[in-house]
Amino acid sequence: MTVNNDYSKQIEPVEKLPDGTVFYSYDYSKEVYKNIVKKKFILSDIVLMLLYSQFKEPICGRVSLMKQLFLLIEEVLNKEDVQNANFIAYRFGMYSFSLANVIENLDYLGLIEIDGKKNTKLEKFYITEKGMAHISKKYGELDPELQVIIRYKRKGWDQLGYKGILRLVYQKYPKYKEKSEIKEKYKAIKWGRGIG
After folding, report:
1. Total Cβ atoms within 10 A of residue 149
2. What 8-state DSSP symbol labels residue 41?
3. In which domain, by residue range, is 95 found?
4. Burial level of 36, CB count in 10 A (0-12/13-18/19+)?
């Protein structure tokens, strides 16, 4: 890639790396940015809304947090304009590398707090005062009925606990358990003709 000292006259689409990353000129990038359609809710909003909905209670375990975020997007906010989390089948079911990165960034920014032993059921995720101040307006703009649904769903998911939420998502979304390391523990129970 040739670099010109006059930044206003950068070279057009420039270079492609082996991993697929493409570099473009500054002017071209500005034009692309102008045409990006912004989503109503970005992933950081979703994480904060989930934690804000039951702000006195943490979510215990990263696996449980990821499953609750998946269910919130798929079942509750599915009619809203939400940024794609790009969930894939992974070691413990559905997983989003984008959301994992957002969670770490929110912790770094002080909008959430992560406490306890990392990557265990003892790890706890809290929303901070700063996080509540950040999301309260956007959460308040949600339809009041949707706010109630989010609160009740979050409470129910918390009550399911680690095993319960895994059983729920594996039953409802079997394609995501294909690569799971623990899928054998959560096999579907067959009762007569149906699946229970």
Report:
1. 17
2. B
3. 43-183
4. exposed
β pairing state of 112-115 and 124-127: antiparallel
Share of the chain above pLDDT 70, in %: 84
pLDDT of residue 24: 78
What is the pTM assigned to this prediction? 0.77
Q: How far apart are CA 90 and CA 107, in angstroms?
A: 23
CATH of the domain at 120: 1.10.10
What is the rounded distance in angstroms from the CA atom of residue 19 to the CA atom of residue 124? 35
160 vs 121: CA distance, rounded Å: 13
Quick check: 146 and 56 in contact, CB under 8 A?
no
Residue 147 lies in a domain: yes
Assigned token pair, 45:
């909003």
The answer to whether 94 and 176 are in contact (CB under 8 A) is yes
For 32, residues 6+ apart whose C-beta sits below 8 A from its C-beta are 24
